[in-house]
Amino acid sequence: MSLLPLDELPGPLPAPATPVRSPSAARLAGRVLSLVPLLLIGAWAVVDWHAVSDGAARLASADPWWLLSGLFFTCLGWVAAAVVRQGAIPERLPPGPLLASQFAAGAANHVLPASIGAHAVTLRFLQRHGIPLARATASLALYSLVKPIAKTLVLLVFLVAFPDLLRLGQLVPDERTLLLIAGGVTIGLTVPALLITVVRPLRRPVLDLVRTALTDVRVLHSRPSRVLALWGGSAIAPVLQASVIASVGASLGLPLSWPQVVFAFLAASTAVGAVPAPGGIGPVDAALVFTMVALDAPLDLSTATVIGYRVLTIWLPLLPGALVLSALVHRKAL
C-alpha cells in the first residue's frame, strides 16, 4: 500500500504528442502548383512561336484605333463569360472574383482542349464559394449546353436578317462532310449512353447529376434575371468574339462588312467548334479563313485577320491570365 499523500499521486500519463506537419511542404506544393500555368504557357509559346511573330508583324502595321476597339471587345467577352456563369447557378456569386476567375480560365482554356481548363478553373471557383460538387457540375453542363444553342439561334437570326449579304453556295457542306457530322453526333450521343448502361458505378452519380441539373434549370428559368444572364450572355458572347475579328479586319483593310464577318465566325465556329483543340485553335481558324475567302475576301488578308484575332484574344492576355490564375491558386481562391 502506497504511503504517498493524495496530492502527490501521479496524474494520468500525457498523450503522445501528435506529429505536426511542417507547413513548409504545403507552401512549397502551393508555389509549385501556382507556377504550373506559367510553365505550360511558356512551353506552348515556344512551340507556336512562329504564329506569334507573324501576328505581331502584321499588327505592327495595322490601324491602332481599330486594334484598341478589338481589345475592348475582347475585354467585354470576359464580362459576358462571367455573366453566363452567374446565369447558370442559382446562388449569387461575388462579381469581382467571378470576373477574375473567368479571366484566369481563359488562360487555362487555351492550354487544354475542349474547354477542360476553363471548366476546371470554374469548378474549383464554385466549390470554394460553397457550391456542392453536383450543383457546380450541373452548372457547367448547363453552360456547355446553352452556349451552342444560343450561337445557333444567333446564326439563324443573321441568315434571316441579311439574306443578300451572305452568299451561302460555297459554304454548303458536301455529302461526305454531312456524313462525318452525322457520324460525330451519333457517336457523341451513343458513347455516353453505352457507358452509363455498361458501367454500373456511373449510373447513380450520372442520375444524381441529371436530377440536380433539371432542378436547377427549373429554378433558374423561374427567375428572369438568371434567364437574361444565361441566354443573353450566351447570345452576345459569339457576337463580341466576331466583333474582335471585324475590328482586326478593319485595321488591316479586310473588304468585308461587320455582318459578313460575324456570320463567317458563327458559321465556322458552329461547324468545327466541337473539335477538341485548345481554345478551338486550328480547326476554327482554318474554317474561318475558308469562310471569309468564300465571301470574296483575299486569302492573305483573311489569314492575317485571324492571326491578329488570335494575338488579341489569346497571346496578349495569356501571360496576365496565367499570372491571375497563379495568384488565385496561391491565395487558395481556386
Topology as H/E string? Answer: HHHHHHHHHHHH
> Measured on Cα atoms, how large is the radius of gyration?
26 Å
Task: Give the beta-strand count.
Answer: 0
Ends apart, CA distance between termini? 64 Å
Give the CA-based shape. Answer: globular
- What's the mean pLDDT score? 76
Overall domain count: 1
What does it look like?
- This is Membrane protein.
- It is a multi-pass membrane protein.
- The chain is mainly α and 334 residues long.
- The protein has one domain (46-330).
- 74% of the residues lie in helices and 0% in strands.
- The protein is built from twelve helices and no strands.
- It has helices at residues 23-47, 49-60, 64-87, 95-109, 116-128, 133-161, 175-198, 203-220, 224-252, 258-272, 283-294, 299-330.
- Helix 2 packs across helix 12, helix 4 (95-109) crosses helix 12 (299-330) and helix 9 (224-252) crosses helix 12 (299-330).
In a nutshell, what does this entry contain?
The protein has 334 residues and is an all-alpha fold.
Task: Note the main attributes of this structure.
mainly alpha; 74% helix; 334 residues; globular; 12 helices
Q: What is the strand and helix layout of this fold?
A:
Layout: H1 23-47, H2 49-60, H3 64-87, H4 95-109, H5 116-128, H6 133-161, H7 175-198, H8 203-220, H9 224-252, H10 258-272, H11 283-294, H12 299-330
